[in-house]
Amino acid sequence: MKPYRDFSDFLRGHFDGKVQKITVNAGFTCPNRDGSKGRGGCTYCNNQSFNPGYCRPSLSVREQLERGKEFFARKYPQMKYLAYFQAYTNTHSDDIDRLMALYREALDVDGVAGLIIGTRPDCMPQDLLDRLAGLREWVMVEYGAESACDRTLELVNRCHTWADTVDAVNRTHAAGLPCGLHLIMGLPGEDEATMLETVDCINELPVDTVKFHQLQLVRGTRMASDVEAGLYDIPRFTAEEYISLCVRILDRLRKDIAVERFVSQSPSDLLIYPRWGLKNYQFTNLLHNRLAEARNII
Ligand code: SF4
Q1: Residues with CB under 6 A from ligand 1
Q2: What spacing in Å lies between the alpha carbon of 114 and ligand 1's midpoint?
Q3: pLDDT, mean of each 10-residue run, the chain (298 residues)
Q4: Which residues lie across from 259 on neighbouring strands?
Q5: Are 283 and 245 spatial neighbours (Cβ–Cβ below 8 Å)?
Q6: Tens of pLDDT, residues 165-213
């Protein structure tokens, strides 16, 4: 018995057989940096990833997917793929026809069975949602919500509110599309009670999946220089403490919501904190062991 519903359980409800996500960088930028939503970006976001060269992928969407497929196709010839538009804000354009052409390019690649589109909750115009809902292929939208606490969102310069997330999720669900949220645990000013309140707020929404990750303090960010200057500090957890928090999150989270992950890893040369020395799968194993002990299911 699995200790919680995970992303593969969610995918099994939508597809027969093996499905693999392939990440695509379609050359989008960020509205929280170019002035259309805000300037300066979120305080934890690394400027170094915003050099123009990085934002302009040299391979087309099709080429990226074909290359991604090569890796899996030999081992699993029947595998289906989801094109995951992950980098930056993948709906950030006033030109909806251009957006749809990029998504279509992905969907027309042999073996691609659907799309996952990552974006901000304040960047999903209804016209685009309607066009996505009109596609015959499977489409999911993933929103970077980060926290349900507006004070936190303001403090980290997200330039959107929780109300934007509520609105985007409700409209996405009403359009008939599966919807995921991305959340950060350990943002400045938040304690465990605030983080668990975010979980309660998620439970109120028609959300299908969530991704949690620990706040990472990364070199070159405004947050790193603020913390270094002593302007404020961030909540700090040992790996054990973070695992305990994840257990409490799972106790609280609605059971039909699938959890895709609890941790992510920035490159070691950029990461200031936390340096737990655990790979994602090692963290997941520790969490599963802890859950098994707590729930006595082994
Ligand atoms: S975290 Fe996302 S929304 Fe914030 S500045 Fe970075 S790319 Fe933009």
Answers
A1: 30, 32-33, 41-42, 45, 88, 120, 144
A2: 25
A3: 91 95 93 92 79 62 94 88 95 96 98 97 98 98 98 97 98 98 98 97 98 96 97 96 97 97 92 94 94 74
A4: 6, 210
A5: no
A6: 999 999 999 999 999 999 999 999 999 999 999 999 999 999 999 999 9
What residue has token string 């257990």?
Answer: 247
* Residue carrying structure tokens 């115009």: 125
Distance of alpha carbon 29 from alpha carbon 95, whole angstroms:
14
Candidate of 45, 156, 217 to mutate for ligand 1, largest count of ligand atoms within 8 Å of Cβ: 45
Q: What is the CATH number of domain 7-297?
A: 3.20.20
Residue 19, token pair as written in the block:
């499905």
Q: Which ligand 1 atom sits nearest the alpha carbon of residue 120?
A: 3
The protein residue with its alpha carbon nearest to ligand 1, atom 7, reads 88
Residue spans per domain, the chain: 7-297
